[in-house]
Write a structure and sequence with these properties.
The chain is an alpha+beta fold and about 110 residues long. The protein contains 2 helices and 7 strands. The protein has one domain.
């Protein structure tokens, strides 16, 4: 019971800190945008010289781990454990500041 409460509190905290949309930043990346700031959970690992090694502290995962076939992770759509090669587009996009978490990521249905 305590685990569930802590998980819920973690999600509520993240909900207020993580930006809305598909990206790990607030505002735009346009030059001069004063509202632009990164998600507090997003971190570029400077000690690793590869561009794909960006870390998400909310998900506790890095791009290098997402792309590694020896590591399984939970598919958020199906709930099944998968490897990177099991997914058609199996590359981590944290390096491009695209979210790997689903917090405040909205998918809108096409209007008819």
């Amino acid at each position: 019971m305590l685990k569930k409460i802590l998980k819920l509190l973690r999600y509520i905290r993240a909900y207020f800190l993580i930006p809305r949309g598909s990206y790990c930043y607030f505002g735009t990346r346009a030059p001069g945008d004063e509202k632009h700031r990164l998600c507090p959970f997003w971190e570029f690992k400077k000690d690793v010289p590869k561009y794909e090694f960006v870390y998400c502290h909310y998900e506790n995962i890095a791009d290098g781990e997402i792309n590694d076939d020896s590591i399984e992770f939970k598919n958020k759509i199906t709930g099944k454990m998968v490897k990177a090669s099991d997914i058609s587009f199996s590359i981590g996009l944290l390096w491009d500041q695209c979210k790997e978490c689903d917090v405040k990521t909205y998918i809108f249905a096409e209007s008819e």
